[in-house]
Amino acid sequence: MTLKIYLSGEIHTDWRDQITMGASGLDVAFDSPVTDHDASDDCGVAIMGAEDKKFWHDNKGANLNAIRTRHGIENADIVVVRFGEKYKQWNAAFDAGYAAALGKSLIVMHGPEHQHPLKEVDAAALAVVEEPQQVVQILQYVLNGTLP
After folding, report:
1. Whole-number pLDDT of residue 89
2. 147-to-30, 140, 144 alpha-carbon distances in Å
3. Is the per-residue pLDDT at 55 higher than 90?
4. What's residue 67's pLDDT?
C-alpha cells in the first residue's frame, strides 16, 4: 500500500526535491501545492477573469488553490509542513491546523528560530524536525522499521 504524503509550506528552497529524491525506492507518492509563485498567485484571474482590486485578485487565486490544497491534505496519510526562514507562511500554519483538525499524521519542519512562535503548531505535530533528511528517515522508519 502506497503511503500518500502531502508536502506543504515554503516554496523558495528545494526541500521538496530533497525529500522526494531521498525517498526514492520507498512506497510513497507525493503531492503538493503549485510551487510556481506567479502561477499560484494569478491562477484565479487567469481562469476566471481580471479583477480591478488586488483583494479580489488574491481571493480568486486563494480559492482555486484551496481546492488543490484541501484535496491534497484530505487524501494524504502524512502531511509535512515546512516553515522557511525568510517569509511568514500563514498559509502553512493554516495547512498544519487543517491537517491536525482532520487527524492527519503531521510532521512540521522549521529551524530553531521558529521554535517559540510555532510552539502550538509543533504541539499538534507527531514529529518536529529541522532538515528534509529527517523526514526521509521518518518515512524509512514508518515504512520499513529501519533506522539511519
Report:
1. 84
2. 22, 7, 9
3. yes
4. 97
Does residue 85 carry a pLDDT above 90?
no
Res 88 pLDDT > 80:
no
- Phi then psi dihedrals of residue 53, to 5 deg: -105, 135
Cβ neighbors of 79 (< 8 A, separation 6 or more) are 5, 6, 8, 73, 95, 96, 99, 104, 105, 106, 107
Sheet holding 105-109, edge to edge: 28-31, 3-9, 78-82, 105-109, 127-129
**β partners of residue 29:** 4
In sequence order, the β-bridge partners of residue 108 are 81, 128
Integer Cα distance of 79 and 143 in angstroms: 15
- Please give the pLDDT value at position 28: 98
